[in-house]
Amino acid sequence: MKKLFSILIALAMLASLTVPAFADEPDYTTGTPWPCIDLDGVVTEETTAELKDNFALAVNKDKILALEIPEGYSSAGTTVDLAIQAAEDLKNMFLGDAPEGHDARLAYDYFQLLMDWDSRNAVGVAPLKAQTEQVEAIGSVEELSAYLSATAPEDQLGTVWNSSSGQDLMDSNRRILIVMDAGLLLGDSAEYAALTPYGETVKQAVTELAEKMLVKLGYSEEEAAQKIDNCFAFETMLAPAIYTSEEKQRPDYYGRILNYVGQDDLKQMQGSLPILESLANMGYPEAETYLVMNPAGLEKLNALYTEENLPLLKDYIIVHGAISSSSGLDRECYEWSHDCNNAISGATGMLDDATVFSSQVSRTLNWATAEMYAATYLKQEDKDRIADVIDEILEAYHGIIEEADFLSDETRARAIEKLDAIKPYVLYPDSWEKYSCEELNYAGPEDGGTLWEANRRIARYTLAESVKEYSEPVDKEKWGDTPQTVNCFYDPTKNSIYILGAFAQGNIYNSDMSDEELLAKLGSVIGHEISHAFDSSGAQFDKDGNMANWWTEEDQAAFLERNQKMADYYNAMHPWEGQDFYGSIMTGEAGADMAGVKVVLRIAAGMEDFDYDAFFRAYADAWLAKDTLQMAYIRINDVHPMPYLRINCTLQQFDEFLDFYGITEGDGMYLAPADRVIIW
Fold it and tell me: Which contacts of 669-678 are long-range, i.e. CB under 8 A and separated by 24 or more positions?
């Protein structure tokens, strides 16, 4: 369900402050039942590596010792290598001559605007200062409401809530207008109740960036400090009413956020907040039904939207605006933003501009970049081969469902029906007609264009496209992500899996791979994504992509019991002494890992002379990783288990693994049948 690698890869790409040490640092080698071998420095030449006790360490020890986290990254390893290769490919694509075609030229010109430091330095912070002064001039809540509901969205410095159009989970063929919580500087609302060591690092980094930006905008150091204090004070009052990151990642989060209200109800709920007026200003028509994701958060925000709190409200907008704009301004601001990101991610050094900016073009003008990337780097024969592998794994998955002894015949039949309806999206679209941005235009550097103006026009165009799509049925044939994205994922609203082009590369997939390596790496990921249709989140959606219960009451209870057993299994583990995992959020991804290996092992069982040693070692290689301490904290709070657990916890579920290596009771890799937690 979750995008398998996007969060980790994006964090790895954060681009140099000295990495701050956390207070009272623990002994990071004290993990149970295995040490956290992903954390840089835990594995040394002296570290004991016995295959039967710690397979991930025994197989990958020499590779871990040889790994160095590259400058500009917070991780190293197999999947980060894919990100590095994709970034290099994009850079090479934009360093050539100007391409033909409107969309490709847009992407090329945007890259040139990003690279044009003479223009960026000449513009400086003047456009941001003008926006900041507009907010400073607001003298009442009434004036703030007028600003939020009448200023062109692309010219607003920020807002105190978020709203947009999104797909309706209950009826995935239509879109609905959504009201969401405002963002928090610390990300997780739990940090405002009890600041963690990682939260301290984030707070220090964003505070330093905000201070520098505000002083550059003309505030004194004392004024800047007061604004940042006001921003944190406002967020601290708001945070108790906002879901924590852990709550957002629980399977029951879908049920919590589906709060449908009519227009009259929303008018009452918004109080003095101009939410409906702001939606009209964005261009959206009036609607009969809206989705308020967090009514308690909206109620709290409305209570805080007062004349007394006006300085806090304004400073919240100003501080967030300064931070979010920093990377798109002059060189000094860009480097400050880079330093902030490095401090948060633990990365050191700086990637070259062309690498950073080509990836930024790919994110900002994703489909304008996509066709160029696919034509340059992706092959039809690989698309065909991977499609065949997907078909084989989908067919094998029937056996997984047929043998699930906790399902009744009724639920099993519906599960098979959903499985047969899964649609694969492989590498890149067959046609590009749906992805044109012909109506977007801005001047390139040779015509006097600026990056700030291009970003304004892109923001205006993107909103206009969203408004246009809102009134149309959802096009479920349209791809949910681009081929240059290093990712694979399952989309429950389409009942589809995506194996994107930049992921099926290098050490994860190439045309020369053996069957064993192909099944262990790309094959297990394909199985992983298919299984998300039946995990604790995906199982809430039917074959047509609508949130609907297709389980009998007894089957659902048995399914949830199995999920709880898996959660308890991970709760009993620790990356180091004193640090917990959060099993409640990990069952979907961990269960998908296990189901992915299970289905490809079914295929392996029918292959003559299958090399199980090569298969298991290739699987371990796919999850090879080395992380900074900050990255390790990020992974601990992520729905995906840490890479070393994705190896050891997954493989110890299977007799094929235990029997092949002669692993028995008393060995560190042994797990008794009664203690195994595989859900499917």
Answer: 669/51, 669/52, 669/53, 669/54, 669/55, 670/52, 675/569, 676/652, 677/562, 677/565, 677/566, 677/569, 677/594, 677/653, 678/591, 678/594, 678/595, 678/598, 678/653
Tell me how far apart the alpha carbons of residues 523 and 147 are, in angstroms, rounded to a whole number: 52
Q: Could you tell me which CATH class the domain 6-91+373-434+474-675 is placed in? A: alpha beta
Structural tokens at position 498: 């995506």
Q: The CATH number of 125-328 is which of 3.40.228.10, 1.10.1380.10, 1.10.357.20, 2.60.40.10?
A: 1.10.1380.10
Q: Which of 50, 76, 54 is nearest to 65 (CA)?
A: 76
Strands (E), 478-590: 488-491, 496-500
| Band of residue 96 on the pLDDT scale cut at 50, 70, 90 | confident
pLDDT per residue as tens digits for the range 12-32:
333 333 333 455 689 999 999
Domain boundaries, the chain: 6-91+373-434+474-675, 125-328
Task: Select from 488, 570, 581 the least CA-distant residue to 532.
Answer: 488
Long-range (24+ apart) CB contacts under 8 A made by 217-226 are 217/125, 217/128, 217/129, 217/132, 217/322, 218/129, 226/315
